[in-house]
Amino acid sequence: MPNQPEANNWPRWFDPRSRSLGTFGFILNRVTALGLTLYLLMHLIALGQLARGADAYDGFIALVKNPLFKLGELLVIAAGVIHGLNGIRIALNSFGIGVRCQKGTFIALMLIALFIIAFFTFKMFSEG
Amino acid sequence: MRESLSPKRLEGSGRWLLKIFTGLLIVVFLGIHFVVNHLVAPGGLLTYADVVAYFQNPIIVVMEISFLILVVIHSFLGLRSILLDLNPSPMVLRVVNFVLVVIGAVAVIYGAWLALTIAGRG
Amino acid sequence: MTEQLWQVHFKVHRQRTGGKPYVRTFTLDVDPEEYILDAVERIWALHDRTLTYRHACHHSTCGACGMRVNGREKLTCITTISSVTQNGGTVRIDPLRNFPVVSDLVVDMGNFFLRMDRSGFNSVAPLAAACLPYEQPLTAENSIDHEPERLVDCIECGLCISVCPAANTDKEYVGPAVLASLHLMYVQNPTQEFIDQADHHTGLWRCHSAYECTEVCPSGVDPAWRIMDMRKKVMSDRIKSIFRPRSSEKKNAQPA
Question: Looking at the domain covering A20-126, what would its CATH class be?
Fold first, then answer.
């Protein structure tokens, strides 16, 4: 990759080597943003099954009840929780609030995220 | 010295505010969504009949459609910001703007049509 | 000075102008409390006279010796060898990122200096303005007949530009140091000119809150804090403009 700024340096956005905590926040936010946008479009297309009536939709729900789809669903919830909580930090920071304690805020919010994700994991996989 | 002529501003405080405002509302709406789905309707909306019944409440229809609009605005503004990081040429950016607006509008119209169709099947 | 010398392998980035980069390893016996720049100078003096690098003052004031040490942006004149490796260890030395490499460890910072210039950057400021608002402001010890001034913190070393993930892909992004300079200028002279320069897709809005600039700054400028403070100002102006539509036009219409 070239040393000077160039668009094809973009894989470096996601390179966490010799980086500090702030970059982990940046990477998490960017990855979840792209993932959630992709999910939004997939979700809209999938819900089109509703228009095709009861049989089509109920057949589709039976398909997504398998563990692989459930794992995907869990990833979406995790991405949403992480992006949402991290977004609160970034929004507050850009109003000049909590900039000097952004690291502590990040750790606290990600612990909350972990707790929420654990709750949903337990809930989704215990219901069977 | 080309850069001393300040190029046209492509992103400013207005779009950032809109992103924060929609982001905040999405967090609120998602909170309501989870509470409704897991406390009010235990087990979630897992059958076609459940969904149709759920959409009989006009507040739900309005909420789902506004939620979609918020999510589309927030995610497409974010996507545009990521693309701006790649320093696109004005030509490429015009295409990006056009594509994002068209996909966004189609997504909202399609989603609204879907919500109203389901609501009409009660 | 410690008694014992360490043997350290320095893997140095080599590159002729426009040429292919490669790595050359030099093994040196060093005092662990020496600085990385001392080692680089010794490599040049005793092992390879063709090695190019920039340095001047040796005491973190000129900002010339910024390099990446084991991948991380450092001012090499104040980075001790013991802080980055151990006896028998390896130290990688690379040029700063996000600037074109001239040769070896020298990068072309011309564009960056030009942008600093355009931001109105002045290396001297009144005591109160030169400090960050959350710092204890310095006071002059003796009473003097003019307003006390001091050198501002930014030494234009470019470490913040090198570490910034947004500056990685967008060559038009002015970067943390320039935005911090605009903030400093605005604090001293609150005019719209500095706000307009910052409120731009190549300015405030390319920052994605990775806070790396503040992390690597060897001089305590806290560019990230300054960027966010500038954002606060720009956004409160924007919110006010929503509730006072066209008021400025009305003012302009009235005779003064």
Answer: mainly alpha
**Distance in angstroms (rounded) separating the CA atoms of residues C101 and C15:** 8
pLDDT band at C255; cut points 50, 70, 90: very low
**Structural tokens at position B4:** 């001393």
Q: Is C14 on the interface with A (CB under 8 A)?
A: no
Sorted by where each begins, the domain ranges of chain A are 20-126
B13-119 has CATH 3.30.590.10 classification: no
Please tell me the distance from the alpha carbon of residue C17 to that of residue C5, in angstroms, as a whole number: 35
Is A99–C70 a contact, with Cβ atoms under 8 angstroms apart? Answer: no
Task: Give the SS3 label for residue B113.
Answer: helix
C-alpha C29/C-alpha B101 separation (Å) is 63
**C186 CB within 8 Å of a chain A CB:** no
Pairing mode of beta strands C6-14, C90-94: parallel
ipTM reported for the complex, 2 dp: 0.92
Between B23, B87, B114, which is nearest A50 by CB? B114
Any A CB within 8 A of C10 CB: no
Where does the pLDDT of residue B53 fall: very low under 50, low under 70, confident under 90, or very high at 90 and above? confident
The four Cα atoms A79, A82, A88, A89 give a dihedral, to 10 degrees, of: -140
Whether residue B82 contacts residue B48, with contact meaning beta carbons closer than 8 Å, is answered with no
Instruction: Name the residue of chain C whose CA is nearest to B21's CA.
Output: C239
